[in-house]
Write a structure and sequence with these properties.
about 250 residues, UDP-N-acetylmuramoyl-L-alanine:D-glutamate ligase, about 20% strand, binds pyridoxal-5'-phosphate, EC 2.7.1.49, HMP/HMP-P_kinase_dom, transferase, hydroxymethylpyrimidine kinase activity, phosphomethylpyrimidine kinase activity
């Protein structure tokens, strides 16, 4: 029996993103889930109306209670004390960090000190970071990297100790294909492509990172896990496109 995946992140009351999305993804891949809640949020698909961080000691206690873990996926961290609590008791397992900085509705989901702690205290423990293009730009700026070129920005993150970076291309303004690129130190990036589908869908970043973590737990290689995760997100996009094209009664 595969050990569970530990999801460390926020509760999104709307269920679109966050830990509910993570757990749904684990179930899709037939993997057990443990959670450590870092923040409680009240949200609709259009706005974040309240955020309450969880006390750092309670976050650590949840992580320690999770027991033996096959992989860890981290999402919303909210504040620097929560980042520090997570960094101090991370289980010894492959760790995927989705750097949740802001909701698609435009609300900051981590404060400035938290983002700084994420870069300098958590990143050295991360096996795979999964920023989208705006997150990569923001993390580069916060880390003092003035480069505009994607590969140079990723290089800056490697210097902070991160071991692999998957840059998600969904926010690129053009093209019929959505291309994500996996960067490993000293190698050219590996592209992962999927048709670009237009649908109002939240929690795609959470789903992608969770699906990667679930498949790593199942023993798949990083490349196979990313390919399978992109297919899972694509299935949800297709279902949303079909739903949106139904005539309203
Ligand atoms: N709320 C929580 C708890 C999240 O973890 C995330 C993203 O990871 C969001 C909100 C933002 O999701 P979206 O960008 O789909 O609005």
């Amino acid at each position: 029996m595969t050990a569970p995946v530990l999801f460390i992140g926020g509760m999104d009351s709307s269920g679109g993103a966050g830990l509910l999305r993570d757990c749904a993804t684990a179930a899709e891949f037939g993997v057990l889930a443990r959670v450590a809640v870092t923040a409680i949020t009240a949200q609709t698909d259009r706005a974040v109306t309240a955020v309450q961080p969880v006390a750092p000691g309670v976050v650590s206690a949840q992580i320690l209670a999770a027991g033996q873990i096959a992989a860890v996926k981290i999402g919303m961290l909210c504040t620097a004390p929560v980042v520090q609590a997570v960094a101090a008791c991370l289980p010894n397992a492959p760790c995927i960090l989705d750097p949740v900085l802001r909701s698609s509705s435009g609300h900051d989901l981590i404060d400035a000190a938290g983002a700084d702690a994420l870069l300098h205290q958590l990143l050295p423990n991360v096996d795979l970071l999964t920023p989208n293009l705006p997150e990569l730009a923001l993390l580069a700026r916060l880390s003092g990297c003035a480069a505009r070129h994607e590969a140079a920005r990723v290089e800056g993150l490697f210097r902070l100790g991160c071991r692999a970076v998957l840059v998600k291309g969904g926010h690129a303004a053009f093209g019929k294909v959505c291309e994500d690129r996996l960067y490993l130190p000293g190698a050219p990036p590996t592209p992962f492509r999927a048709p670009r589908l237009k649908a109002a869908l939240r929690g795609t970043g959470c789903q992608l990172a969770s699906a990667i973590a679930a498949q790593i737990a199942l023993g798949r290689s990083l490349e196979a896990a990313i390919g399978g995760a992109k297919q899972a997100v694509q299935r949800r996009f297709r279902a949303a496109v079909d739903q949106e094209s139904l005539p309203s009664i």
